[in-house]
TrEMBL record:
Enzyme class: isomerase
Catalyzed reactions per annotation: L-alanine = D-alanine
Documented EC number(s): 5.1.1.1
Gene behind the chain: alr
A Pfam family the protein falls into: Ala_racemase_C
N6-(pyridoxal phosphate)lysine: modified positions: 35
Superkingdom to which the source organism belongs: Bacteria
Identification of the protein by name: Alanine racemase
Species per Swiss-Prot/TrEMBL record: Plastorhodobacter daqingensis
Length: 349
């Protein structure tokens, strides 16, 4: 096997969904965000596992993603599209029964003209200034929009991963001001908001990263293990170097293993000389720069050279890799490369 093997534990994804579902009252539904190919893990397989676990409402970023999720799930579950109803989306929305979250008066008009019978929701901006109708815009069209019976009113928190940030309470108050008394089901929280407590839960939550084992859901079960096969190993004398730029130099007689995987596979070059790969529970430091397709690793302390080394797994989560590359677990997940062989494990149940 020449490529890295990305093991994806569907049972752990289902368990994380159940744990996040249990964090809110039974009256609060728990959706599932499967945008960006389910954060790089495969939207079809992941959405089916989540549907088996009990998820009934799925969220994607754009209509094309919604069409793919619909093909995987078949009729029944609701598939909501954060980018709403964009120019040219009508055939996808109607053919695949998607539910756009309308972001502006333009989108509302477009939707009601093109697909008057197709369910929709409305996204409101409560301070993030990214997507959704602003207060004045909403005030102007709320009456018309509500008369067409939207299925959801939603907004998104900018700072939910920082529980003490004053923006959270500010956005909560604004969301209430915009939606109290409408009688329409409401949704404010992604993974971080669920952890802020019941005030933030409303009728439906929308976890994404927590399902996939990422922070801020600290109790998440790990979902991915990434094993990189060793191509070859060699002995180095003290003073010899490894990799581009000679940034790692042997201080003792060393054994360097070269593994398949590099920055073209989403293993950021910033990880150079900064993190470990793992042989079971033995850490082996990266020795030198991460290159496009290969990484050199110091395996001197292992009794023998293994056939592969793990860069993600129970010893090192996506957020650890994120910290090593000055980024976040979300980016590590969504950067996981196309060249890995993806192996799905643990049927949901
Ligand atoms: C991505 C996204 C989510 C999921 O967020 P996580 O932090 O991954 O749980 C929920 N809602 C919106 C609007 C999003 O863009």
């Amino acid at each position: 096997m020449a490529s890295g093997i990305l093991h994806i534990d569907l049972a752990a994804i289902a368990a994380n969904w159940r744990a996040l579902d249990a964090a809110s009252e039974p009256a609060t539904q728990t959706g599932a965000v499967v945008k960006a190919n389910a954060y790089g893990l495969g939207a079809g397989r992941v959405a089916r596992a989540l549907a088996e676990a009990g998820a009934r409402r799925f969220f994607v970023a754009m209509a094309e993603e919604g069409a793919a999720v619909r093909k995987a799930l078949g009729p029944g579950p609701q598939i909501c599209v954060f980018s709403g109803h964009m120019q040219g989306d009508a055939p996808l929305i109607s053919d695949h029964d998607l539910t756009p979250m309308l972001n502006s008066v333009d989108q509302l008009t477009r939707h009601l003209e093109a697909l008057p019978d197709q369910p929709f929701g409305i996204q409101l901006d409560t301070g993030m200034n990214r997507l959704g109708m602003e207060r004045a815009e909403w005030a102007a069209v709320a009456e018309i929009a509500l008369s067409r019976r939207p299925v959801l009113l939603m907004s998104h928190l900018a700072c939910a991963d920082e529980p003490d940030h004053p923006m959270n309470a500010h956005q909560l108050a604004e969301f209430r001001a915009l939606t109290d008394g409408t009688g329409v089901p409401r949704s404010l929280s992604a993974t971080g908001g669920i952890l802020l407590g019941p005030d933030y839960h409303f009728d439906l939550t929308r976890p994404g990263v927590g399902l996939y084992g990422g922070l801020p859901f600290e109790q998440a079960q790990p979902v991915v293990r990434l094993a990189l096969p060793v191509v070859q190993a060699r002995a180095l004398e003290p003073g010899e170097s490894a990799g581009y730029g000679c940034t790692w130099v042997a201080k003792r007689p060393s054994v360097i293993a070269t593994v398949v995987g590099g920055y073209a596979d989403g293993l950021h070059r910033a990880l150079s000389n900064r993190i470990h790969l793992w042989a079971g529970d033995v850490p082996c430091p990266i020795a030198g720069r991460v290159s496009m397709d290969l990484i050199t690793v110091d395996v001197t302390d292992l009794p023998e050279v293994p056939t592969s080394l793990d860069i993600l797994g129970p010893q090192q989560f996506v957020d650890d890799l994120g910290a090593g590359a000055d980024t976040i677990g979300y980016e590590v997940l969504t950067a996981l490369g196309a060249r890995y062989t993806r192996r799905y494990e643990g049927a949901a149940g």
